[in-house]
From TrEMBL:
Name of the protein in its database record: Uncharacterized protein
Annotated SUPFAM superfamilies: ARM repeat
Phylogenetic placement of the source organism: Eukaryota, Metazoa, Spiralia, Gnathifera, Rotifera
GO molecular-function terms, A-Z: protein phosphatase regulator activity
Region (Disordered): 180-204
Length: 204
């Protein structure tokens, strides 16, 4: 409902009331709440863009970078990737404008220590930011940075990340003889969990 409300109020009111509420929801422990918050935040961004709310936009971008992209919590860094994707799909920015606002922080996550973050990043970039008009419309420097990011993810130690950016997926060995193999470098996505060596991280 917050997303729909953003179109009913001024950019000042959205910045003062709806945006802070959405940011609060975005750090919730429940994944579904975070997803709803991402949609609401993209609605705030759309409002600030359409109303040319420059002050509100500056505060919004600063909060996005501070709360999400620079967070010590991997789930919030993943929220940043998902929010960047949601905002990208609004198609309200020129390629370079979007790049200036988001790509620098986004591409810096290519070497994030958590597989979930790199996987979300690789999937978003490979499926949305290359081989299309957006990519063609970028300046040479931004295209080079995207290419470098994909090259790094193509040789990622995790098989799912490699597959997400067009690498060859290698099926997990399931024979009994593989039980003693060291498979710490790969993740397995099953039942909404990511397995990292002996650890499991709940996606929610």
């Amino acid at each position: 409902q917050l997303y729909e409300l953003t179109s009913l109020f001024s950019s000042v009111d959205v910045g003062d009331y709806i945006s802070p509420l959405a940011f609060g929801m975005a750090v919730d422990k429940v994944a579904d709440v975070r997803q709803a918050a991402i949609k609401a935040l993209s609605g705030c961004y759309l409002k600030f863009t359409s109303d040319n709310g420059q002050i509100q936009m500056e505060v919004f971008l600063d909060d996005c970078h501070r709360v999400f992209a620079s967070s010590q919590d991997w789930k919030l860094r993943q929220v940043y990737v998902n929010l960047c994707e949601s905002i990208y799909k609004l198609h309200v920015d020129t390629p370079d404008q979007y790049a200036l606002r988001f790509l620098g922080r986004l591409l810096s996550l290519k070497e994030d220590q958590v597989v979930n973050v790199r996987l979300s990043l690789g999937t978003f970039i490979y499926e949305n930011l290359v081989n299309n008009e957006f990519y063609i419309g970028l300046s040479d420097d931004w295209r080079s940075q995207i290419d470098e990011c994909l090259q790094i993810l193509l040789v990622d130690h995790d098989r799912d990340v490699r597959a997400a950016v067009g690498g060859v997926y290698q099926a997990r060995v399931t024979s009994l003889s593989s039980e003693n193999l060291n498979d710490d470098s790969d993740s397995s996505i099953q039942n909404n969990t990511i397995t990292l060596g002996d650890e499991q991280l709940n996606q929610s």
